[in-house]
Amino acid sequence: KTYLGLDGYQVRSEKSINRYLTIMLVNYTYCKIYSNDSHHFNTGYKAAKKDLEKSKVIYIYEAAANGMSIEEIFKSLKIA
């Protein structure tokens, strides 16, 4: 729960509980797929996080190489 940023998430209704369980199930499944042979959620989570960071760096590099300004890159990443 803490790894996924949901440690402060509160559920007060059936809809919230279902939403929370769905989010957890999807995240758990995604991370288990990334874990390959280790069968550990944490291994998959770290691998998925590392791949996401790599893809961001590649995107920034390619955008800069194609002449995109830093402000345009910030806007496209929604961090401007």
Describe the structure.
The chain has 80 residues and is mostly helical. The protein has one domain. Helix content is 66%, strand content 0%. It has 3 helices and no strands. Helix 1 crosses helix 2. The radius of gyration is 17 Å and the shape is flat. The two termini are 29 Å apart. The model has no long low-confidence stretch (mean pLDDT 82).
Radius of gyration: 17 Å
Number of strands: 0
Number of domains: 1
User: DSSP helix count?
Assistant: 3
Order of helices and strands: HHH
Q: Identify low-pLDDT runs.
A: none
Distance between the termini: 29 Å
Give the integer mean of the pLDDT values.
Answer: 82
Q: Biggest sheet: strands, sense, closure?
A: none
Q: Which labels suit this protein?
A:
80 residues; mainly alpha; flat; IS701 family transposase
How would you summarize this macromolecular structure in one to three sentences?
About 65% of the residues lie in helices and about 0% in strands.
Strand and helix layout:
Layout: H1 14-34, H2 41-65, H3 70-76
Helix pairs in contact: 1-2
Protein name: IS701 family transposase
Organism: Clostridium senegalense
